[in-house]
Specification:
9 helices; binds S-adenosylmethionine; Rossmann fold; alpha/beta
């Protein structure tokens, strides 16, 4: 597989008009990032829920990201004035996330049904690791939220453990999750979530708040 992509040198080198060509006014900063967005179901769901927020899906597979791009274009045509706030980029988010987002730019990050890898030797390929969590903390603003859901309990335990152990994150309580209207969208918006439902599988959800660095 070819895992090298044309990637921007830094967030300052991105022409956001390319991603959001008809967004009313000059596009501001992307605030939501869907990491490993797959077929983009979550973005399409959140687009109309947060019409004033710019969102970016990051997907490593060329064909899948091309599909999402076409789907977004079709939705834009079908619903004039809508879906201008979502876009997708083909990239390895584990490698290039800091090339896309500045410090404290994001208010929400999503990890929905990330690919599970069990073997010890493959741990470095996990989309959630102590090193990567520090990068996510950098891109997120204080009060920003990381949303995770998976059907693999071991992955859930892994993600929860590492976010909870990180000094810049705090796990949300069940009560806090219940008051966030985004949480209910995590379960069945995406292809993978629907597949797990069809197969009668279990899902494990956890959310974490980016807390201030100075204590
Ligand atoms: N979030 C989607 C959903 O819920 O349907 C997709 C879930 S799928 C199991 C995991 C996705 O993450 C795949 O589409 C895969 O190509 C993508 N992916 C894996 N590693 C990635 C990486 N390093 N950067 C970007 N995307 C990645």
């Amino acid at each position: 597989a070819n895992n090298e992509f044309d990637h921007p040198v830094s967030p300052n080198h991105i022409d956001w008009k390319v991603f959001y060509p008809a967004y009313p006014s000059q596009p501001g900063l992307v605030e939501f990032a869907d990491v490993g967005c797959g077929y983009g179901g979550l973005l399409m769901n959140l687009a109309t829920m947060f019409p004033e927020k710019l969102m970016m899906g990051m997907e490593i597979r060329q064909k899948v990201s091309a599909y999402v791009r076409q789907k977004i274009e079709a939705l834009r045509t079908l619903h004039p004035g809508q879906y201008q706030n979502i876009s997708v980029v083909q990239t390895n988010a584990m490698k290039y996330l800091p090339n896309y987002f500045r410090k404290a730019q994001l208010s929400k990050m999503f990890f929905l049904f990330p690919d599970p890898h069990f073997k010890k030797s493959k741990q470095k390929w996990r989309i959630v690791s102590p090193t990567l969590i520090s990068e996510y903390a950098f891109a997120l603003r204080e009060g920003g939220i990381v949303y995770t859901i998976t059907d693999v309990e071991e992955v859930h335990i892994w993600m929860a453990k590492h976010f909870q152990e990180h000094r810049l994150f705090r796990r949300l309580s069940a009560e806090e999750m219940a008051t966030d209207p985004v949480v209910e969208k995590l379960w069945d918006s995406t292809e993978e979530g629907k597949k797990v439902t069809r197969n009668g599988g279990q899902k494990f959800c956890a959310c974490f708040e980016r807390i201030p660095s100075a204590s």
